[in-house]
């Protein structure tokens, strides 16, 4: 990492913290298997963060890059473990499933995660 990369990462985090919306990232991890019932219980942990929230553009919808009702959430990568496709995001009372994660890098470090979602 260079000083420039560190500065870019911090600038992205500060800007999104100032102008982004408050969302909750819900991390879903597979729990233990219960052989008596034949089911697995998932465990959820919540993490509050800020994100820039956007609707998909008509072009993205036309070309299969998003779904109606879904949103794109852009969050700073600094200090955040990469969100997985099993995770969810809540915005107000709406819950969204993460369908894709595009990572933007500066040098070799992640700067932004752009999370494409579908509404549940």
Report what the structure shows.
The protein is α+β, with helices and mostly antiparallel strands. The chain contains two helices and eight strands. The protein has one domain (3-29, 44-119): Thrombin, subunit H, CATH 2.40.10. It has helices at 3-19, 58-62; strands at 21-29, 33-34, 39-40, 43-55, 71-76, 88-91, 94-106, 109-119. The radius of gyration is 16 Å and the shape is globular.
The overall average pLDDT, rounded, is 94
Main structural class: alpha+beta
User: Count of DSSP helices?
Assistant: 2
The level 1 CATH classification is Mainly Beta
Number of beta strands: 8
* Residue windows where pLDDT falls under 50 for at least 5 positions: none
How large is the radius of gyration?
16 Å
Question: Would you tell me which CATH topology applies?
Answer: Thrombin, subunit H
What does the main sheet amount to? 6 strands, antiparallel, barrel
**Beta-strand residue percentage:** over 45%
CATH-derived architecture: Beta Barrel
Regarding quaternary structure, how should these chains be classified? single chain
Topology pattern, helix = H, strand = E: HEEEEHEEEE
Q: How are the strands of the biggest sheet laid out side by side?
A: 1-4-5-8-7-6
Helix fraction, binned, reads 10-25%
């Amino acid at each position: 990492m260079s000083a420039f990369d560190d500065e870019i990462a911090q600038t992205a985090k500060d800007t999104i913290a100032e102008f982004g919306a408050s969302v909750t990232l819900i991390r879903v991890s597979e729990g233990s298997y219960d052989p008596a019932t034949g089911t697995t219980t998932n465990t959820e942990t919540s993490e509050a963060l800020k994100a820039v929230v956007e609707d998909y553009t008509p072009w993205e919808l036309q070309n299969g890059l998003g779904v109606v009702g879904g949103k794109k959430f852009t969050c700073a990568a600094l200090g955040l473990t990469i969100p997985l496709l099993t995770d969810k995001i809540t915005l107000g009372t709406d819950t969204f499933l993460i369908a894709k994660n595009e990572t933007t890098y500066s040098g070799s470090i992640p700067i932004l995660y752009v999370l494409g979602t579908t509404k549940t």
